[in-house]
Write a structure and sequence with these properties.
The protein is about 75% helix and about 0% strand.
């Protein structure tokens, strides 16, 4: 009888353990199924993502030119070009600068598409525009902070160089540059969000 009494808790414990194992098994299956659904919902339409980035970059470039005429923005295309080409070849500087500028735009178009899909805004034009503005503002803040470190990596920027350091958020370019920088990226974000959303709906 003592042996039977000692064995009883073991049987009960084993039953609980098997129940826990079954629960973990079915829970794992459920998690795998949910993850599979999430992966399918996270499908990115690459061609529309790239197109959204390129169109957003085009409108942003127009705004940069307009801002430059008002003294609110630097010549970003020239800055990018001079990172790879000597100032002795001005046409090549702008050609390479445009290629790099739009290549970055296409890359960020993909990143924005991933972010919009993650928050469930892809395919909802209004929500995509709103989230695009949020992402654009954050993007602008990140770029503004990075401008302060640009002379460290740019070969033709610094004391005695062709380009003068813009300072954090481009404050050395003009007092309105920090706001202009964020607005430029909001323009990019809203445009990329709307274009990608329309592409998803088509």
């Amino acid at each position: 009888m003592a042996a039977i009494r000692r064995r009883g808790p073991q049987i009960g414990g084993g039953t609980k353990l098997r129940g826990l194992e079954l629960w973990l098994f079915f829970y794992t299956i459920e998690v795998i199924g949910a993850f599979s659904k999430m992966r399918s919902s996270m499908e990115i339409l690459w061609e529309y993502a790239v197109a959204a980035g390129l169109i957003g970059t085009a409108l942003m470039t127009v705004a940069i030119v307009a801002g430059k005429l008002m003294g609110l923005a630097s010549d970003m295309v020239r800055i990018l070009g001079l990172a790879f080409v000597s100032e002795e070849h001005p046409r090549r500087v702008y050609g390479v600068g445009l290629i790099v500028h739009f290549a970055f735009g296409a890359l960020f178009g993909i990143l924005y598409a991933v972010a919009l899909t993650a928050v469930g805004a892809a395919g909802l034009v209004g929500m995509a525009a709103a989230w695009g503005a949020v992402f654009g503002a954050l993007h602008g803040v990140a770029v503004g902070g990075a401008l302060g470190a640009l002379p460290v990596v740019h070969p033709r920027m610094g004391s005695g160089q062709v380009l003068q350091p813009p300072g954090f958020f481009g404050r050395d370019i003009g007092v309105g540059m920090p706001v202009a920088l964020i607005l430029l990226h909001i323009i990019y974000g809203v445009t990329a969000g709307v274009v990608y959303s329309v592409g998803v709906l088509s």
